[in-house]
Amino acid sequence: QVRLVESGGGLVQAGGSLRLACAASGGTFSNYAMGWFRRIPGKDNEFVSLITWNGDSTTYADSVKGRFTISRDNAKNTVYLQMNSLKPEDTAVYFCNAQYNGEYYWGQGTQVTVSS
Question: Is pLDDT above 90 for 41?
Fold first, then answer.
């Protein structure tokens, strides 16, 4: 069983930056592709970004491309999401996700609020 704990959320003004982290335990972190999703109030969960197990490939939603950067440190069992040029529409609860061989695990989420 993989446990994921997100951190780094908070309140920031538009144009600002935040760096989210997701620490994993209970599994072999380097086996898992890791992703970030977000839940905006009143909407379904939205894909944000994904990184492969070894970090050699990344994918981004169009809405965050060029502003967000996903990375991972397999030695620290941690995946990061660097968020720059934040917009009020980025306000959401951000979740990290671990995927491997049909297994999916989710963290509890961290709130990001961007004020205009």
Answer: no
10 vs 1: CA distance, rounded Å: 28
Length of the chain: 116
In contact, 33 and 2? CB cutoff 8 Å = no
Backbone phi, psi, residue 31, to 5°? -80, -25
Give me the pLDDT at residue 47, please: 97
Residues 22, 48: Cα–Cα separation, whole Å: 14
Work out whether strand 110-115 and strand 10-13 pair parallel, antiparallel, or are unpaired.
parallel
Distance separating alpha carbons of residues 59 and 108, to the nearest angstrom:
22
Q: Which positions ≥6 away from 32 have C-beta within 8 Å?
A: 2, 24, 53, 98, 99, 100, 105
